[in-house]
Design a protein that fits this description.
The chain is of the alpha+beta class and 612 residues long. Helix content is 27%, strand content 14%. The protein is globular.
Length: 612
């Protein structure tokens, strides 16, 4: 491959900085497994695979512009909830198709999310013009549903998100699940559907730990981070309180398609709504935090769904005014129930954890609970097994261990085709079923693959599966053609790219530059990392890598030196070590002086006693 300098069949090839161009998608996998690897995943499913391509027979541009979208938002005493609702409608290319369900958990003095939104939207001229005449006072009020709970009733994220199950409209085709303190790119609704089509998978779920809101400018345009369209990539885990916990996101660059990954995140989840109906949130796991995401990862996986990292940041998270603000309310912190010191809550939390451990066959669960959970609506699917999940994610649930790094090139896991097909029929399928028979089997040629979202040039096809109705010989020919197309340089197929370019053309032009106002510097190859380097590595405790938040600026006080996703605090670390050493020495000196004075007083008391 001339662009990357890698052999075509090398799936562990490290791409040096000078070769990381727009035509070379790469992913960071860590110091022990290379650095920036070229993304070359399998381009075709095995002949026996029965996974469907996107089944909608309508024109993809029509779907991207018009398909109804339901947005599920859970809010706990969040003053940013109204701004999130306003962004959903004001930044949408077609706000009339957006429906929102808010689960609000407030105390008496907190502003009501809907009322605050109405006050904000009332002054938005564009929204007032596009809304129905009867909603001029509160544009799109009829498209927002709110369930209100007292903050004293809050039982954690899994319980809160389960409350919106009956708020999902029957005609909703796409579902976005996100938080109540988010920012949105201009035309986010069209762009997110276009990204979903790029996965070429009816069961694709776009999910990741969301990038910082600074990656979306005030006018709705997107920042080209580090000049390489860098995005968070969720793929590594650790263990916390007996549960699988997603670690901070690594990073991917110049993705031309969604990148298959192993983990799902609750802060951003975008898929066809049959995913939410087939894998609903379990309301019987109150007060669980760390076990939320992986338990749903397992349920998605076994039901046949695949999680992908989106190639562009369309929805972003306001970390500054949430994690970075000590006055911000949190259900397990300030303003919430006293979770850590309430014995009753701790007993309920323990039972919730045991329910998840039973579901996943982990130590701490029991067989009776496992049978109850797995056979109910919140159990595992039959398309794949837990053993396959362990291999796919690189973990061992039975002894809570990590087996392998799965951040690089990974393969799509075939389904058990004999398992029952999940019901993916939507309200609109009855009117748009022309050209299709059963899911994944068409009476006509499938639509062309989705185009590169923002760039022209060569692309990497992910999981370009042949139609199930073809013969084995035809499947092999298609696989060979798909494998060849993944390495041959050529123009991207025209599909949704013109639509995205037209939407972006309406925005003011911006120079591509990373956060912090710096222009991209010529990339330099990273030096070999030594054991000494690894001992001095400090992980920044945010859900996204620091350079995605603009902290890799040399002018920043922390002076964080970038090394492919892991960072050495070149100023704060030495100062911290110096302060620690100084405190240790001072403590020893004070202790020695205190002991000496104490011995001296004791000696004088003994001497006086002897004299008298």
């Amino acid at each position: 491959d001339e662009a990357s300098g890698c052999r075509v069949d090398d799936r562990r090839c490290t791409v040096p900085g000078e070769r990381q161009t727009a035509q070379v998608p790469t992913v960071w996998v860590g110091p022990n497994d290379g650095r920036w690897l070229r993304v070359v995943e399998n381009t075709a499913a095995p002949p026996a695979a029965c996974a469907p391509r996107p089944r909608d027979a309508r024109d993809r541009e029509t779907v991207a512009r018009e398909a109804p979208i339901f947005v599920a938002v859970a809010s706990f005493r969040d003053s940013l909830c109204a701004a999130t609702l306003h962004g959903l409608f004001s930044r949408a290319a077609n706000p009339r198709r957006v429906r929102v369900g808010v689960v609000q958990q407030n105390a008496d003095p907190d502003p009501d999310c809907l009322e605050a939104y109405c006050a904000r939207a009332h002054n938005d001229t564009r929204l007032a013009e596009e809304a129905d005449p009867g909603e001029a006072e509160c544009p799109f009020r009829s498209q927002i549903a709110v369930k209100r709970f007292s903050s004293t009733e809050a039982k954690g994220p899994t319980w809160a998100r389960a409350q919106d199950a009956d708020m999902l409209p029957e005609d909703a085709e796409f579902c976005l699940r996100t938080d109540s303190h988010m920012a949105f790119a201009s035309a986010w609704d069209v762009k997110q559907i276009a990204q979903w089509f790029g996965a070429e998978n009816e069961f694709a779920v776009l999910s990741t730990y969301v990038a910082d809101a600074a990656q979306i400018r005030a006018d709705g345009s997107q920042v080209n981070v580090n000049g390489k369209w860098e995005v968070p990539h969720l793929c590594s885990i650790q263990w916390q309180d007996g549960h699988v916990r997603n670690m901070q996101a690594k990073a991917a660059r110049n993705l031309q398609r969604p990148k298959l990954t192993t983990l799902w995140a609750a802060g951003l989840s975008f898929a066809k709504c049959h995913a939410e109906r087939a894998v609903p949130y379990d309301p019987s796991t109150p007060y669980v935090f760390w076990g939320e995401e992986f338990s749903r990862t397992a349920r998605f996986f076994t039901h046949g769904y695949d999680v992908y990292t989106p190639p562009r940041t369309v929805v972003a998270h306001d970390y500054k005014h949430t994690q970075g603000d000590k006055t911000h309310f949190k259900w397990n912190g300030r303003g919430g129930p006293n979770v850590a010191h309430n014995a009753t809550i701790q007993r309920i939390k323990r039972r919730s954890s045991e329910r998840i451990w039973s579901l996943l066959g982990m130590p701490g669960g029991d067989a009776a609970t496992a049978r109850e959970v797995r056979t109910g609506p919140y159990g595992l699917g039959t398309r794949r097994t837990l053993d396959q999940l362990e291999t796919f994610a690189g973990i061992r649930l039975s002894n809570r261990s990590i087996l392998a790094n799965r951040c690089g090139n990974i393969d799509w896991v075939p389904w058990d085709c004999a398992a029952a097909m999940p019901d993916v029929t939507t309200h609109n399928d009855k009117e748009a079923a022309a050209g299709t028979t059963t899911l994944g089997r068409r009476t006509e040629a499938p639509p062309p693959p989705a185009d590169d979202l923002l760039n022209d040039g060569p692309i990497v096809l992910h999981h370009h599966r042949p139609p199930a109705s073809t013969t084995e010989e035809q499947q092999q020919q298609q696989q060979h053609a798909a494998a060849s197309s993944s390495t041959a340089a050529g123009p991207a197929p025209e599909d949704l790219a013109p639509l995205i370019r037209d939407l972006d053309a309406a925005l003011p032009p911006h120079d591509d530059q990373p956060l912090g106002g710096r222009r991209p510097k010529p990339p330099k190859p990273a030096p070999p990392r030594t054991d000494d380097d690894r001992r001095t590595t400090v992980f920044v405790t945010t859900k996204t890598d620091p350079h995605l938040l603009g902290l890799d600026d040399p002018a920043h006080p922390a002076a964080i030196a970038a090394d492919g996703g892991h960072y050495r605090l070149t100023v704060l670390l030495p100062l911290g070590l110096l302060c620690a050493c100084g405190c240790f020495i001072l403590r020893r000196v004070v202790a020695a002086v205190y002991r000496k004075r104490r011995r001296s007083k004791t000696f004088r008391r003994l001497t006086v006693t002897k004299v008298y």
